[in-house]
Design goal:
six-stranded antiparallel sheet; 263 residues; 7 helices; 12 strands
Length: 263
């Protein structure tokens, strides 16, 4: 069976926000077939297979940024060289980054504690394959409805899942951002993988918690429901997060499925 090359509109942006002195988030938009990274901060049109990732670093200014960059760069390199592109491949790529971060900490003890959370996706053959670690998120907007395709790997999310905390109380819980999984500092890493078919006009949003701590799902859905370009959507979401307080770094990657052509 011949592969289908799907056209996807893209826009990615990352900002340090209003409070932090530096930006420890990184984003990557990459064409796997050519092994080429695409520039962020401007609207793009590309063909699949595409790799998109948002990584949110932790562990101090230098360590957090290094960890996030390691996640994006190592995982992209691994997937460019992979024989297959599916959800298990994305999980394996994040595990490879985990090994690299651990090795760097081993040789540089001053980096101890550095790590990152991330959500990473491949778009290929009319499907999206991905994996997530921590509290970065993936959303899909289809028709007029927003669906969250990932679950936060946090202490508070686990309390809600166990029925020990009400959903409405989770938003303001003091331990809301305590993650249970992170790439680098934790043992027995288990990325959560996912896969689904895409459809024309679907819009996918990958973001760090710098967006979602200030802009809730209903507000995100309202913004995505407006008829505007991905660039204006991305900048509007960033503006809302900053006006809401901008307490953390904010990273946003948007992808709209345009169509396909047999190739």
């Amino acid at each position: 069976m011949e592969n289908q090359s799907h056209t996807i509109q893209l826009f990615g942006i990352s900002d340090k926000g209003s409070v932090r002195a530096d930006n420890q988030d990184t984003i990557l938009l990459g064409e796997l077939s050519r092994g080429q990274k695409l520039a962020s901060g401007k609207p793009l049109v590309a063909s699949t297979p595409l790799y998109l990732v948002v990584a949110d670093g932790m562990g101090g200014a230098a360590g957090g940024l290094l960890a996030a960059e390691t996640v994006t760069n190592i995982s992209f390199r691994r997937l460019c060289d992979a024989d297959s592109s599916d959800a298990s491949s994305v999980s394996a790529a994040l595990m490879e980054a985990d090994k690299e971060i651990k090795a760097r900490v081993q040789s540089n003890p001053e980096l101890r504690g550095m790590g990152a959370v991330a959500t990473a996706c491949i778009f290929q053959d009319g499907r999206i394959f991905g994996a997530q670690v921590g509290d970065t998120r993936l959303y899909r907007f289809r028709g007029k409805s927003l669906a969250r395709l990932t679950s936060d790997q946090t202490r508070v999310a686990e309390l809600v899942k166990q029925g020990l905390l009400a959903e409405q109380d989770a938003e303001n819980h003091p331990e809301k951002h305590v993650v249970l999984q992170a790439i680098g500092p934790m043992e027995n890493l288990e990325p959560v993988s996912f896969a689904e078919s895409t459809a024309a006009d679907d819009v996918y949003l990958i973001c760090s918690d710098g967006l979602t701590r200030h802009v809730n799902d209903q507000e995100i859905e309202a913004e995505l429901g407006t008829a505007r370009s991905l660039e204006s959507l991305g900048r509007r979401l960033l503006e809302r997060a900053i006006s809401g307080g901008g307490e953390d770094n904010i990273s946003i990657v948007l992808a709209r499925i345009v169509g396909d052509s047999t190739g």
